[in-house]
Design a protein that fits this description.
Length: 351
């Protein structure tokens, strides 16, 4: 291929095409019969005279090969593509004999490469053998119908109705540290003893209003259908008369006893909507429980159940002074498609 073909080619890199134009411009002679000067070429092509001199010299020395880039300095590559492929294959398809997952050291010994090389390859391919995530697929035969039912209430709630996400956070422990908590100081985080003294438990029944974000809460020492029935009565008192009440809850046995069914028949404005089994992520009150645990309970110190319950009531009251509703964004079809795609990645999922 000539330098003229390089200069006109549509797929020629721009840098190489520019060098070809410089060489072609240098080959043009003036009317006097003399070759064009470097200054004239530089002005016509739009580069410096030093650039013209460089590529004219390189062309005279190596012809077309001289217009290519010179090899860049650096260490010669020592890890071959085959070694990288074997490392990735071993990471994905094998396990060490004495561990559940590979480390950079054990894999380096397995494939005969350095630990830093293994680490770089893992980062390049997004491999993290030290991490593992959990999941649970629902086996509810009415899974699809229930997802459409619950998500439909989130995205398009009925008029003149309250939609409440209801659940219980049971066995909340009143924990007191065995030694005083050391406060945070500059450069030193708060420190607490790893052991603690148990002082009893309580159960929080909560109903999250999806429209306003407000929470109706009730604390009980036991977790039975009787306590759930009392909580329903509290909801009935707090929801304005004339409004229907749609309750989203899980499949816990206390939600389906005969006493609860009779109470529901006596209060026809109430309607229960059950999430699929093993699908607590569909109930938005779980997100509120997590926020309360992170901000109030996990690092809290309570010497009695009464102190624990006072803190929970105060936290609910503070939340309701400035409620922040959670916004559901995915449609039922998007959720089902995501789960279907996940199941296709799992062998023997049965889906």
């Amino acid at each position: 291929m000539s330098s003229g073909s390089w200069e006109r080619g549509q797929s020629t890199p721009q840098a190489l095409a520019l060098r070809a134009r410089i060489v072609l411009a240098c080959a043009v002679t003036e009317p006097t019969g003399l070759p064009r000067s470097a200054t004239a070429v530089a002005g016509g092509v739009g580069v410096t005279t030093e650039t013209v001199a460089k590529w004219r010299r390189r062309f005279l020395q190596g012809r077309l090969d001289g217009l290519g880039d010179a090899p860049r300095p650096g260490r010669v590559r020592t890890v071959t593509d085959e070694q990288v492929a074997e490392l990735v294959r071993a990471t994905l398809e094998t396990k060490p004999k004495n561990a559940t997952h590979w480390s950079t050291r054990s894999m380096a010994s397995r494939v005969g490469l350095s630990q830093s090389t293994v680490s770089r390859v893992w980062r390049a391919f997004g491999l993290q053998p030290h991490r593992a995530e959990s999941f649970k697929l629902s086996t509810d035969p009415f899974f699809v119908d229930k997802v459409h039912d619950v998500v439909g209430l989130y995205l398009d709630p009925p008029e003149r109705a309250w939609v409440l996400c209801v659940d219980e956070k049971s066995q909340i422990q009143a924990l007191d540290r065995s030694q005083p908590v050391l406060p945070m100081m500059p450069g030193v985080p708060e420190r607490a003893s790893h052991d603690y003294v148990r002082s009893g438990t309580t159960t929080l029944f909560a109903a999250l209003d999806i429209a306003s974000g407000k929470v109706i809460g009730s604390l009980h020492r036991r977790h039975r259908a009787a306590e759930f029935k009392r909580f329903l009565a509290k909801i009935d008192r707090e929801v304005p008369a004339g409004l229907d009440v749609h309750l989203i809850c899980d499949n816990y046995a206390t939600h389906k006893t005969e006493a609860i069914k009779k109470w529901m028949l006596a209060h026809p404005r109430f309607q229960l909507h059950f999430t699929p089994t093993s699908s607590s992520w569909l109930n938005m009150v779980e997100r509120w429980f997590a926020e309360m645990a992170n901000k109030k309970l996990r690092r809290g110190v309570h010497r009695s159940v009464q102190a624990l319950e006072r803190d929970i009531r105060a936290w609910i009251a503070d939340w309701n002074n400035n409620p922040r509703p959670y916004v559901w964004t995915k449609s039922a079809d998007q959720i089902l498609e995501s789960l279907a795609a996940y199941c296709r990645r799992i062998k023997d999922s049965g889906h």
